[in-house]
Each structure stands twice: as structure tokens, then as C-alpha cells.
Amino acid sequence: MPRDDWKGVVNQILYGLIFTAELDDVAAARMAEAMVERRYFGAGPGVYAAAITRARRHRGPLTDEMPTPHGEEGFRSFLGLLAAQLDARRPWRRTTS
Questions:
Q1: Helices 72-88 and 45-57: crossing angle, nearest 10°?
Q2: By the 8 A CB rule, do 80 and 55 touch?
Q3: pLDDT digits (tens, 9 = 90+) for 35-64
Q4: Which of 18, 9, 2, 19 is nearest to 55 (CA)?
């Protein structure tokens, strides 16, 4: 993944949460399953997992590029939940395209 591409991938996750009221384990499980099944998140779980890792290390804001009902701290916490949910679903199915 090129150096700054992770931010666009993380913005996809943030956009996918616009109508999600609670950033909890249930929401993380639902999103992780969609990533593994490549529903709405066609790049596949590996791309999202890598972007989440980069985002969690990033010291700058993650919620600054689009309007969101979620605060920075809540979103960062959600990324941790999402990472754990993705890890719990390993090994990910491979698809051929």
C-alpha cells in the first residue's frame, strides 16, 4: 500500500459508520464480516487490516477529512475493536478475480 493510501481506506470505514449509532463490538463484528465477505468493502480484509494498523499508529487526526457523527477517540477505539474482529476471522478466504 503506498504511503498515504491507508488514509483513504480508513475514510471508507468511517463513511461506513455514518448511520451507526454505537461504535461497539456488535458494529465491529458486522463490519468485519462484511469485509471478510467483501460486501461493501471489496478490497478485502487484508487491505483494511493493514490500513487499520497504520491508522492506529498515526498521531494525527483520523476523522478530519469528512463530516462524521463520531469523535476521534470513539473512532480510534472502534478501529481497535474492528482489528480484533478481523483477527478473529483469520484465515480469511481467498477469492479469485
A1: 140
A2: no
A3: 999 999 989 999 999 999 999 999 999 999
A4: 9
Q: Distance between CA 68 and CA 14 in Å, rounded?
A: 8
CA distances from 3 to 13, 29, 49, 58 (A): 18, 28, 15, 12
Query: How many CB atoms are located within 10 Å of the residue 49 CB?
Result: 19
CA distance 84 to 51: 14
Task: Give the dihedral of Cα atoms 63, 52, 24, 32; nearest 10 deg.
Answer: 130
Name every residue whose Cβ is closer than 8 Å to that of residue 59 and which is 6 or more positions away in sequence: none
Q: pTM score, two decimals?
A: 0.92
Task: Outline where the chain has alpha helix (H).
Answer: 5-15, 25-36, 45-57, 72-88
Give the angle subtended at the CA of 68 by the CAs of 67 and 71, to the nearest 5°.
125
